[in-house]
Amino acid sequence: MANSTRGDVLLVLDPLEQLNPAGDSSYVMITEALRRGYRPFAVQLGGLSLRNDSAFASATPLALGPTRESGAPPPLVAAGPPERRSAGDFRVILMRKDPPLDSDFITATWWLDRASAETLVLNEPSGLRDLSEKLAILEFPSLIPRTYMLRDRHDLREVLAELGGQMILKPVYGYGGRGVLIARENDPNLSTLFELATDDGAEWTIVQEFVPEASRGDKRILLIDGEPVGAVLRVPASGELRNNFHMGGRPALTDLTPRDRQICARVGPFLRERGQFFVGLDVLGDYLTEINVTSPTGMQEVNKLHGLRGDETMEAKFWAGIERRLES
Q1: What's the pLDDT tens digit per position in 153-167?
Q2: At 169, which CATH number?
């Protein structure tokens, strides 16, 4: 790795032991930062603090651990004890904390608001708060399957009939495919599914029209500063409804279709205006189904499937985009 001469960068992360060196996008963001000569630090939510109007972090310097005999990528390890640092000490702060979007996450975005007065913060915290990954797609009604937010079981039955007797149910705050259900007319468990999806009417659920192409997988498209840079097809495991890698989905080679590019051309400027620098769009058939702004993944899968190396990798393009921001 290059000598650290380009300054310090901070990533707000989950615990290091939860990062999968063979699949996590945050991992290659950090290794690329090291390759480019930055000194990366990590902080968990509990290490964030405000002192009057200034943001501070208990930041741990990072390094690569010992090479593994198996040839697997080395883990990231602490290169020293945590240091209390001002947000302004870092050239950029990257919010890479995984969902859920709970009260701790929201509070962290208020910390990021203060940090953004002192340095570059990506993705912009107001967008992390405001752009629901399930509902932001409603800004683009011509690009999406029919989508609803409901909690009343009578409304759910009415929409099920409207959608031809089959529909998808998603938790509003769900992530990684957790809690996704398929509802079908004449299913003897239908009432139970509605109870589960809405916590017996206490919570909203997202309802989407069933898209038959789901059996062939959905496409994760990575955007950097509003422009598409790569894509991977997520193919569901046999007998599984969900395509997400967390749920056993298999990555497969894919390219952008004219429809994909049309979707990106419509959504990209909106995301750029909202300060969402690194985003994952989910496209199912011809439809945009989600806009993922909180720690999207897929970098390593795109790299491996396309054989990308060096400056052609997703993480290299990510840091090149950041450097353009820093120089502007």
Answers
A1: 999 999 999 999 999
A2: 3.30.1490.20
User: Which residues are marked as active site?
Assistant: 134, 170, 220, 234, 242, 282, 290, 292
What CATH number is associated with residue 280?
Answer: 3.30.470.20
Global confidence as pTM: 0.94
Gap between the Cα atoms of 122 and 322, Å rounded: 9
pLDDT digits (tens, 9 = 90+) for 116-143: 999 999 999 999 999 999 999 999 999 9
Distance CA 31, CA 41 (A): 12
Distance CA 40, CA 220 (A): 27
To the nearest 10°, report the CA torsion of 211, 292, 229, 92: 180
Beta strand segments in the chain, E: 8-12, 39-43, 48-51, 54-64, 76-78, 83-86, 92-95, 120-122, 147-150, 166-171, 181-184, 205-209, 218-224, 227-235, 250-252, 278-284, 287-292
